[in-house]
Write a structure and sequence with these properties.
The chain is of the alpha/beta class and 180 residues long. It contains six helices and five strands. Helix 2 crosses helix 3. One of its GO terms (biological process) is DNA recombination.
C-alpha cells in the first residue's frame, strides 16, 4: 500500500540505470527479484518473479516504465544475463524506452546495485525464506518503499526525517506528530 502511494512521487533520474536480479527463497525454492537503481544509487523500481526469463524481464520494464515516461533511461547497464537485450528491444518496440538506448554489459558498473541488494536482503527472514509468494511480494514492496522514502526519491539537498514524516502523514491523512 505504501509502495503504491509513494510511486507517484518518484522523480526522473539521471538517465542511466543499472539493472540486476538477485535470489529470494520462497517455500524452499529460489525466486528472482529484479531491481534497478540509477547511477547515484537511488532506487528506480523492482519486480519479484517466479522465473528468470524473457517474459519476466519484459514485465519488469513494463512495470518500471508504463506509467512514467520521464523515467525512461537512455543508458542501461546490466550483467551478462541473456534476457535483457531482447527485453530492451521489445520495450523500444512497445514505446516504453527511447529509440536506441545505450546498453552496457559490464561487471564493474554493476557493483553499485550488487552492493545495494543487501539493503533489501538483510531484512528478509533468515530461516527458510518466505512461506508464500504473495507475502514475499508485499514484504519486499514495503522494504523497497522504505528505501525510496529513506533515499529521498532523488531529491537534491537535505532530505530529513522530518521531511519523510511529512510525506507519510500527507499520504495517509495523518496528523503530524513531531511539530518542530
Amino acid at each position: 500500500m505504501i509502495e503504491k502511494r509513494l510511486r507517484q512521487f518518484r522523480r526522473p533520474h539521471c538517465g542511466t540505470v543499472r539493472i540486476d536480479e538477485t535470489y529470494v527463497k520462497i517455500r524452499g525454492k529460489w525466486r528472482y527479484l529484479y531491481r534497478a537503481i540509477d547511477k547515484h544509487g537511488n532506487p528506480v523500481d523492482f519486480l519479484l518473479s517466479a522465473k528468470r526469463d524473457l517474459e519476466a524481464a519484459k514485465r519488469f520494464f513494463r512495470k518500471t516504465l508504463k506509467d512514467q515516461p520521464l523515467l525512461s533511461p537512455n543508458k542501461i547497464c546490466t550483467d551478462g544475463a541473456n534476457t535483457f537485450p531482447s527485453a530492451i528491444k521489445a520495450s523500444v518496440e512497445d514505446g516504453l524506452l527511447q529509440p536506441d538506448p545505450v546498453h552496457y554489459v559490464t561487471k564493474h558498473l554493476q557493483q553499485g546495485i550488487e552492493s545495494d541488494h543487501f539493503r533489501v536482503k538483510k531484512n528478509l527472514p533468515k530461516i527458510g525464506g518466505f512461506q508464500s509468494f504473495n507475502t514475499a511480494r508485499r514484504t519486499i514492496a514495503g522494504f523497497e518503499a522504505m528505501l525510496w522514502l529513506r533515499k529521498g526519491f532523488g531529491f537534491s539537498g537535505g532530505w530529513t526525517i522530518n521531511d519523510q514524516n511529512d510525506l507519510v502523514a500527507r499520504l495517509f491523512g495523518l496528523i503530524k506528530v513531531n511539530k518542530t
